[in-house]
Amino acid sequence: MEFIPYCAKEAFQFCFYQIPKELFTNEYYKGKLSSDAIILYGLLLDRLSVSIKNKWIDENGLIYLILTRKEAMEKLNISDKTATKAFRQLKELKLISERRMGKGKTYKIYVGKINRKKYDSSIGNFTTELSEKVRNSKNNNSYNKNSKKTKSNFEQREYDDLSYLYANNNWSGINKD
Fold this sequence. Notes:
The protein has 2 domains: 19-131, Winged helix-like DNA-binding domain superfamily/Winged helix DNA-binding domain (Arc Repressor Mutant, subunit A, Orthogonal Bundle), CATH 1.10.10.10; 133-170, no CATH class. Helix 2 packs across helix 4 (80-92) and helix 3 (69-76) packs across helix 4. By secondary structure, it is of the alpha+beta class. The strands form 2 sheets. Strands 1-2 form a two-stranded antiparallel ribbon. It has 4 helices and 4 strands; from the N terminus they run H-H-H-H-E-E-E-E. It has helices spanning 22-25, 35-54, 69-76, 80-92, and strands spanning 96-100, 107-111, 117-120, 125-130. Strand 1 (96-100) and strand 2 (107-111) form a beta hairpin.
């Protein structure tokens, strides 16, 4: 099989699972989650959109999803033992909560939000400071090459229209040389 690189117009032809970088950078999660657990969390986040379509919202207004261990094993190509371990790690770090739907039935899975506060392992507690200041500019009045002046410390990027790059878009008007 030969190597075939992507062209610019093909770059966005796939759908992707989104995995929060915080799981790799926050000291609270770092080293406590296997790569399988991190990928499983991304899969669970993605499945929330299916839950919204199915109106899987409990009596408290919380959204839940249904994903059996077997489905997780098949989607991630992992063993039962590995899937069980990944679910356990997510539960231990409060990234998911499971509630059985009835005797002999599967679980409702609630996906927890990532704790974005910095974890101070020396005192075993979270501090109020963010664990990572993403794209932090030097000061509020500075301009970056690709940014507009904003009131916050975070860079606001502007992009040209890239809609023609998406696979499901009508390719009319694009030079197909």
